[in-house]
Design brief:
The chain has 821 residues and is of the alpha/beta class. It contains 28 helices and 35 strands. Among the domains are: 134 residues, 3-Layer(aba) Sandwich (Rossmann fold), CATH 3.40.50.620; 207 residues, Isoleucyl-tRNA Synthetase, domain 2; 157 residues, Isoleucyl-tRNA Synthetase, Domain 1 (Orthogonal Bundle); 60 residues, Ubiquitin-like (UB roll) (Roll). A hairpin with a 3-residue loop joins strand 21 and strand 22. The radius of gyration is 35 Å and the shape is globular. The chain binds ligand ANZ and zinc ion. Zinc ion binds next to loops.
Length: 821
């Protein structure tokens, strides 16, 4: 009996697979048998951690089964090589991002290969290669030419530690997605993608996708479509007339200012307008400048504005709870429904960049307004009669019958809603989505291919001059002055203007790394193409991606950006479908043994390499597959005993593989095998790898019971095929040992035979002197002698006792009772 030498076995088969280019995927021209399984490509962090093993080796189970089922599966891998994470790490280690990234990619590729996943290495894509980012830049130019990329002054998120702007999607609870620093707001001139133009399409496209509902909901919320109304409230000064003043930029307190007719608000509840008892403007609202001459407490207002503007996004979000605000004294507004005068306030809780930056406050029917009104003693007027009981000292946000609402009194609020919108304003659709700020003041990224010319303005780099190569510079540290370090590379910056030939300057910002990753899956279909980003024919053969597995953190970042990209490319007729990923799965998290997120500081990091060395890659991968359902975003602590148990299981399997005989299986065993084939096939399809392994274990228990007398070889061969996606190296070794030809991974997946699976067996109850001793599954119609053999084989009653029994009562199809005196 040979022992399970995992190291030898794994090295041997990895070498064979590589030599045979076993997993290179041919480009079949039709989509029919093609299947595209994608995992999010890693950034070159330097070392494969447990999360990588979970992310890459587990989907490989599915890939391998689909291949055995006859599909031509594309399973590529690459590196998300540009961007902040790699650059920040390089800076910490004081090496150039290029050298750092290059070294890491080489090392990680070696580690990835040792995982034994069936990646097609010939399609490797690295976003920092000029052959790749040439097309990233080309896409930028197409967006620009179609009005979808533009430069504008805008309020941006600034990370003081990364010293660059970030897109809204990359700010999480007011902090930087990459380094967790608190984000500041700045006004800067930036390049943006007009993703807002695609709000509706991005919403509609979600419906047809086989994605978990949480992801779809999160994207819907992020896009944030609201149907509502815009209503203008007239502004009056304290003399109750509309002021008309001349325009003046340098304004003193009390100086007459521009004429202001009114302030437009956005509301989703125009049916509550009779209950609007005050207006609130965002502290940055531009109308405040125009009203200044009339504001009698201008100094206090200014002070409030300054504090608000200096606040970070985080503080402002929290400020909502504080309900700070200040009234603009000296002016008021007219509620167009009641025609009454109401006060005007400014407060943090109204955001400058949503809706119109101004609201009508209805404290009786909105929680935030209610809290604000309570804090500042503002009147509360109920206009919707609640459908259910409500205590009178509170607010009612639901629908009901209108009260105190003039001609609308008595109508259902839901029905009155659009009528009232039209009566007092106009209906409108509002999105929460903001345009994607894509320029980064950082070195390690694809240069934005634009040139600034004093006379021609902004001029795109001609397409035949792409790529604009990222120059090598000595000083790549971010400067923090709002300019990319590339601005210091004078020799690179100065170029002749493509239009007039005069001395001009290159754009020195680089692109957000999320631009790179918004199209990498297209490149995998045709990675070496020098004429196009990918040929239409090859894309047609593979796209859209059939299954995409990745991290939950990308729900409203990468997954939204990629969808935006492909929707644009579809509109530009560059691709033939708009949605890139048909099925998506977000995976969970592997925690440290202490149940905490793995981190160096907590000392709970599990090094997969050490386990691979000690127990083997197949054990690590099967352990991770067993740890929990892969299709759920759970958090699973690493259990050092659990992985030992998995190794014991594989030891047992290898031992059993060496105990086979050329015998026919009993129909009970054949039946169990086919039920196992069915269940595993179904569960792999659902990415429930944990229950698949439970099935494998159950089956192995059945084989163990047969070990002494011998395991039918044909059954072990089928079992080996079932094991192959889970433990690819060991299964290969077993297959060879059992005399199989070629690779087990090239064999057909065992077909489930419903006839065999339903072949009649029954559960025989075994009694001794009338007391139940156990049960055993036997073939229907079994003879009394065979039944006696079966209960001895199953170890329920010993051979000696059966031989020495005074009697044995057999009730066919039910029970057997051994009488011993
Ligand atoms: C009056 C009202 C009465 C409102 C009521 C709600 C309930 P969504 O669904 O997110 O679009 N709002 C509008 N612009 C705002 C801004 N810039 N900052 C903060 N809040 C703003 O929410 C729209 C509602 O949020 C609007 O409807 C407005 O309050 C508020 F019983 O207007 B509502
Ligand atoms: Zn010019």
């Amino acid at each position: 009996m040979r022992k399970y030498d995992h190291e030898k076995i794994e090295k041997k088969w990895q070498k064979k697979w590589e030599e045979a280019c076993a997993y290179e995927t041919p480009d079949a021209v039709t989509k029919k048998k093609n299947e595209y399984v994608l995992v999010e490509f890693p950034y070159p962090s330097g070392n494969l951690h447990t999360g990588h093993w979970y992310a890459f080796s587990i989907p490989d189970i599915y890939v391998r089964m689909r291949r055995m089922q006859g599909h031509n599966v594309l399973f590529p891998i690459g590196f998300d090589a540009f961007g902040l994470p790699a650059e920040n790490a390089a800076i910490t280690h004081n090496v150039s991002p290029k050298v750092w990234t290059e070294d890491n990619m080489q090392y990680m590729e070696k580690q990835l290969r040792s995982m034994g996943a069936s990646f097609d290495w010939s399609r490797m894509v690295r976003t920092c290669d000029p052959e790749y980012y040439k097309w990233t830049q080309w896409f930028f130019l197409q967006f620009y030419k179609n009005g979808l990329a533009y430069q504008a002054d805008t309020q941006v998120n600034w990370c003081p530690s990364c010293k660059t702007v970030l897109a809204n999607e990359q700010v999480q609870h007011g902090t930087c997605e990459r380094c967790s620093s608190v984000i500041e707001q700045r006004n800067m001139r930036q390049w943006m993608f007009r993703i807002t133009q695609y709000g509706e399409k991005l919403l509609e496209g979600l419906d047809e996708l086989n994605w978990p509902n949480e992801i779809k909901e999160a994207q819907r919320n992020w896009i944030g479509k609201s149907e509502g109304a815009r209503v203008t409230f007239k502004i009056v000064d304290n003399k109750e007339q509309v002021p008309t003043f001349k325009s003046n930029k340098n304004i003193e307190v009390g100086t007459p200012t521009e004429s202001v007719e009114g302030v437009e608000i956005f509301t989703t509840r125009p049916d509550t307008i009779f209950g609007a008892t005050y207006l609130v403007l965002a502290p940055e609202h531009p109308v405040i400048e125009s009203l200044m001459g009339n504001i009698s407490n201008l100094r206090d207002v200014r002070a409030y504005q300054e504090i608000a503007v200096r606040k970070t996004q985080l503080e402002r979000e929290q400020g909502v709870k504080d309900k700070t605000g200040i009234q603009l004294e000296g002016i008021s507004a007219i509620n167009p429904a009641t025609e009454q005068e109401i006060p005007v306030w400014i407060s943090d809780y109204v955001l400058a960049n949503y809706g119109t930056g101004a609201i009508m406050a209805v404290p009786a029917h909105d929680a935030r307004d209610f809290a604000f009104a309570a804090a500042h003693q503002l009147p509360v007027v109920y206009v919707v009669h609640p459908e259910s009981n409500m205590d009178t000292e509170s607010f009612w946000e639901g629908d009901g019958t209108l009260i105190n609402s003039g001609a609308f009194t008595g109508q259902a609020s839901t029905e009155a809603r659009s009528k009232m919108a039209k009566e007092f304003g106009e209906t409108t659709t509002q999105y929460r989505l903001r345009d994607w700020v894509l320029s980064r003041q950082r070195y390690w990224g694809a240069p934005i291919p634009m040139i600034h010319c004093a006379s021609c303005g902004v001029v795109p780099v001609p397409e035949d001059q792409l790529p604009v190569i990222l120059p090598e510079v000595k000083d790549f540290l971010p400067t923090g002055d709002g300019k990319s370090p590339l601005a210091k590379a004078k020799h690179w910056v100065h170029v002749p203007c493509p239009t007039c030939g005069a001395d001009a300057e290159r754009e020195t910002d680089t692109m957000d790394t999320f631009v790179d990753s918004s199209w990498y899956f297209l490149r995998y279909t045709d990675p070496h193409n020098t004429e196009e980003f990918a040929s239409k024919k090859k894309m047609a053969a593979w796209m859209p991606v059939d299954m995409y597995s990745g991290g939950a953190e990308h729900t409203t970042m990468h997954l939204l950006y990629s969808r935006f990209f492909t929707h644009v490319l579809a509109d530009l007729k560059l691709i033939a479908w708009a949605e890139p990923f048909t099925r998506r799965m977000n995976r969970g998290l592997i925690l440290g043994p202490d149940g905490q997120k793995m981190s160096k500081s907590k000392g709970n990091v599990i090094d997969p390499d050490a386990y691979v060395q000690k127990l083997g890659g197949d054990t690590v991968r099967m352990y991770l597959a067993f740890i929990g359902p892969f299709d759920e975003v759970g958090a699973y602590p690493w259990d050092p005993n659990g992985i030992l148990g998995m190794r014991k299981f594989l030891d047992r399997v290898w031992r059993l593989a060496q105990s086979t005989k050329e015998i026919e299986p009993t129909s009970a065993l054949a039946r169990q095998l086919h039920l196992t084939i069915k269940k595993i096939g179904e569960d792999i399809e659902k990415f429930k790898f944990n229950t698949c392994i439970a099935e494998l274990m159950k089956f192995v228990n059945a084989l163990l019971a047969l070990e002494k007398e011998g395991i039918p070889k044909s059954v072990m061969q089928s079992f080996t095929q079932l094991l192959a996606p889970f433990a690819p190296h060991l299964a290969e070794e077993m297959f060879a040992f059992l005399g199989g030809e070629g690779s087990v991974h090239a064999r057909d997946w065992p077909t489930y035979d419903a006839d065999i699976a339903s072949s009649p067996t029954f559960t025989l109850v075994v009694q001794r002197n009338g007391k139940k001793r156990g049960i055993v599954e036997v073939d229907a119609g079994i003879s009394k002698d065979d039944a006696l053999n079966a209960i001895v084989e199953a170890g329920i009653i010993s051979k000696e006792e059966v031989l020495g029994a005074t009697n044995a009562v057999y009730v066919s199809g039910r029970l057997i009772n051994i009488v011993v005196t």
